[in-house]
Every structure is written in structure tokens, then in C-alpha cells.
Amino acid sequence: MRCPYCGSPDTQVKDSRPAEDSSSIRRRRVCPGCGGRFTTFERVQLRELIVVKKSGRRVPFDRDKLMRSLEIALRKRPIDPERVERMVNGVVRQLESSGDTEIESTQIGELVIQGLKTLDDVAYVRFASVYRDFREVGDFHALIDELSHSEGEQRADTVVDAETAPGGR
Description:
Layout: E1 12-18, E2 24-30, E3 37-43, E4 50-52, E5 58-60, H1 63-73, H2 81-97, E6 102-104, H3 105-119, H4 121-131, H5 137-164
Parallel strand pairs: 4-6
Antiparallel strand pairs: 1-2, 2-3, 4-5
Cofactor: Zn(2+)
Keywords: ATP-binding, DNA-binding, Metal-binding, Nucleotide-binding, Repressor, Transcription, Transcription regulation, Zinc, Zinc-finger
Function: Negatively regulates transcription of bacterial ribonucleotide reductase nrd genes and operons by binding to NrdR-boxes.
């Protein structure tokens, strides 16, 4: 691993342990050249994924780009970073297990939209407004109405479950 401070190609691992979600290995490293210390993460990659953009251009899948877009959508929201990490891991696992090496960018967007819908409503609306290219206020109204409608159905299902459960109303 190349040192990010001096560029030396020879660094030493001082400590290795599983990351919080156990899907990666956290390594503490030190550079013998400059003494700089830094952390790296090692993850399993089942296959090399290529993203096919709307323009037809093909680029390698970048997990960090996905994380950055989620960080923007979740900015100033009270969401535990571990939940975000689990969501990203879930999206990546779904993409890798699909069997395809080329993934449409729209497929990634839809997986992220689904994940954000269960994670945080505000982040969901923020991401959807950019992803779906909202042009006017009506686009926001339609999305919020859809979100409110689906929440109303979930509440109704919960009430029905409570009423039909043994010992219910």
C-alpha cells in the first residue's frame, strides 16, 4: 500500500481487525519512510462491476461515489453511520449477486431509492429530487403524496394486525 503522505510504496501493517460490520478488515499502517500513520479497509469483491451510464458510457463501479451521494442526501440527518454502511453493503451485495458484470446506472439508483425510503424520508426526497431530475414544485408534491400514502397504508396494516392478533381489540 502506497503511503498517502510521502508516496513510498512500502508501508507496514501494525494492526488488523474486523470492521464494525464484519464485512471488511480495518488495517492500521505506518510508513517507515516518513512515519505517517493511516488506516485502510479491505473488502471482498466478488466481481468487477461496470456501470452503464444513460449516455452508454461504461465506468467502473465506485463504492465511494455511492457513499458520497448518500452523505449529501443524509447531510444533517440523525442517521447512524452504521445503518448507512449496512445499506451500502446491501446495495453492493445485490449488484454483485445479480450475476451481471454490467449494471445500468438506473438499477443502482432504484436500489438506493428503496434503501433510503426505509432509512430516512427526508434523505429519500432529497435523493429522489436529484435522481429523478425534478423540474417543478409539483414533482415534490407528487413524491411526498406517494410517501404519505404508503405510510398511511403501513399504519392501517399495523392497526389491522393489532386488531386481529390474539388478545387484540
